[in-house]
């Protein structure tokens, strides 16, 4: 079993922008993100999934996924493809 640390980081990033009271789990996710946000790319590249993807030739995808605030749009799935939310 390998926990998906990249999912925990993503949740923490979202939670860090939300107002209101947080559950202990939400607070933990936000704390993990806050502690790692200074070097997300290196952390994600070195986690289990990141290493596997880099070894399989997907280093560019890993770098893209590790970008913080890399896009200002929210994609939605329409007819089997992700498109910009309008």
Would you mind describing this structure in some detail?
This protein has helices at residues 5-15, 24-36, 40-46, 48-55, 59-65, and strands at residues 75-78, 81-84. With 86 residues, it is mainly alpha-helical. The chain has a two-stranded antiparallel sheet. Strand 1 and strand 2 form a beta hairpin. Helix 1 crosses helix 2 and helix 4 (48-55) runs antiparallel to helix 5 (59-65). The radius of gyration is 15 Å and the shape is globular.
Short description:
The protein has 86 residues and is mainly alpha-helical. The protein has helices at residues 5-15, 24-36, 40-46, 48-55, 59-65; strands at 75-78, 81-84. The termini are far apart.
Task: Write the topology of this structure.
Blueprint lengths: L4 H11 L8 H13 L3 H7 L1 H8 L3 H7 L9 E4 L2 E4 L2
Antiparallel strand pairs: 1-2
Helix pairs in contact: 1-2, 4-5
Strand fraction equals 5-15%
Strand order of the largest sheet: 1-2
What does the oligomeric state look like here? single chain
Rg: 15 Å
Total E-strand runs? 2
Q: Provide the helix percentage.
A: 40-55%
- Overall mean pLDDT score? 91
Which term fits the overall shape?
globular
Q: What structural class do you assign from the helix and strand content?
A: mainly alpha
Determine the N-to-C terminus distance: 39 Å
Residue runs with pLDDT of under 50 for 5 or more positions: none
The major sheet is characterized as: 2 strands, antiparallel
- The total count of helices amounts to 5
Topology order in helix (H) and strand (E) letters: HHHHHEE
